[in-house]
Amino acid sequence: MTLEISDSLKARLEAIAARTTMSPSELVDDALTKGYSLEWLERSLDRVERAKEQAARGEFATADDLARVVNKYRPT
Question: pLDDT under 70 in the chain at which residues?
Fold first, then answer.
């Protein structure tokens, strides 16, 4: 199957592909199969990038923070 897409959409797909291990075609297939938008994927990649930058600066959760989360969801 061949699809015609706008230049702006092609540019977005290529930009996302450059940030992932997927090709533009794989991104379209994945988005259609899983039902998410390119905007959602772009936001997700931005959040991951921010988290990596925070980790590089040493901004991690403390042991108490982790324990609080674990205990919140631990069955009693």
Answer: none
